[in-house]
Design goal:
The chain is α+β, with helices and mostly antiparallel strands. The protein has a domain of 32 residues. It is built from one helix and four strands. The strands form two sheets. It has a two-stranded antiparallel sheet with strand order 1-2. The chain is elongated, with a radius of gyration of 22 Å. It binds zinc ion. The site of zinc ion has 8 residues, from loops.
Length: 59
């Protein structure tokens, strides 16, 4: 198996990781109730996804 010849120093490893950063999740508004929700997820407040009720929220 291919194998690195030398250990990458902590400095080089950490410099590479400076590009790793958290991205803000994409938020959209629900087309049924207008609440803010995650895109590609069912709405947590009304349970609708793609114009249909996929679950009935509790309380
Ligand atoms: Zn909704």
């Amino acid at each position: 198996m291919a194998h690195p010849k030398r250990k990458i120093s902590k400095s080089r490893r950490d410099k590479r990781r400076t590009h790793y950063k958290a991205t803000a999740s994409t938020l959209t508004t629900c087309s049924n109730c207008g609440e803010i929700k995650l895109s590609h997820r069912a709405c947590p407040s009304c349970g609708y996804y793609s114009g249909k009720s996929v679950f009935v929220p509790e309380s």
